[in-house]
């Protein structure tokens, strides 16, 4: 799944997302080359809401799912 998200401004933001969420959600990729930023992760549909909530708790609000 790929999501657009707010407040991802730099590599440190990307590193925070990856390090904080990889244990619960697996491999995460953050694309800093587009705006809004895109976050990709392999998720079951049942974990989508939990991922969005975890992103929000870190200060990165998911705008929408794009894939």
Task: Tell me what the structure shows.
The protein is an alpha+beta fold and 67 residues long. It is 37% helix and 25% strand. It has helices at 11-25, 48-57, and strands at 2-5, 28-31, 37-41, 62-65. Strand 2 and strand 3 form a beta hairpin. The longest helix has 15 residues, at 11-25.
Category from helices, strands and their pairing: alpha+beta
Instruction: From the alpha carbons, calculate the radius of gyration and give it in angstroms.
Output: 10 Å
Approximate shape: globular
Strand line-up of the largest beta sheet: 2-3-1-4
Brief write-up:
This protein has 67 residues and is an alpha+beta fold. It contains two helices and four strands. It has helices at 11-25, 48-57; strands at 2-5, 28-31, 37-41, 62-65.
